[in-house]
Amino acid sequence: MKKLYVVAINSISHSYQGVQMGHVVGKLAAKNPDVDWDQQTFVYLSSGEIKMHKVIDKLHSKGIKFDRFYEPDIGNKLTAIACITDQSDVFKSFDLF
């Protein structure tokens, strides 16, 4: 079963992480309206920036579609990523949000 995985950087406040997650989920949904997902399972995670970049490389190598959000209010910094996948191993070392 595919799940929606969302990761936000942990160097910002919890409330700001939540906002960033909302941005990236909206972006992912808008770009992929026909994605195969039952909209039941959301997994919200947090991560350091280096680890987030490593998971982006892993998603690329596995051919998993994802989206990312860069926050204009903090210098267009990468703040969140989101993908829909059944490959949970990609995120096994991340902290729950």
What does this structure look like?
Strand 1 (3-9), helix 1 and strand 2 (42-47) form a beta-alpha-beta unit. By secondary structure, the chain is of the alpha+beta class. The chain has helices at 14-31, 49-62, and strands spanning 3-9, 42-47, 66-71, 77-85, 95-96. It has one domain: Bit1 (3-Layer(aba) Sandwich), CATH 3.40.1490. The model has no long low-confidence stretch (mean pLDDT 93). It has 2 helices and 5 strands. Strands 3-4-1-2-5 form a 5-stranded mixed β-sheet.
Brief overview:
The protein is α+β, with helices and mostly antiparallel strands and 97 residues long.
CATH H level, superfamily name: Bit1
Anisotropy-based shape: globular
- The number of helices is 2
Number of DSSP-assigned strands: 5
**CATH structural fold name:** Bit1
Residue share in β-strands: 25-35%
Can you tell me the residue ranges where pLDDT is under 50 for at least 5 consecutive residues? none
Report mean pLDDT, rounded to a whole number.
Answer: 93
- Give the strand line-up of the largest sheet: 3-4-1-2-5
SSE ordering? EHEHEEE
User: How many separate domains make up the residues?
Assistant: 1
Roughly how much helix do the residues carry, as a percent range? 25-40%
Structural class: alpha+beta
CA distance, first residue to last residue: 21 Å
CATH architecture descriptor text = 3-Layer(aba) Sandwich
The CATH C-level name is: Alpha Beta
Radius of gyration: 12 Å
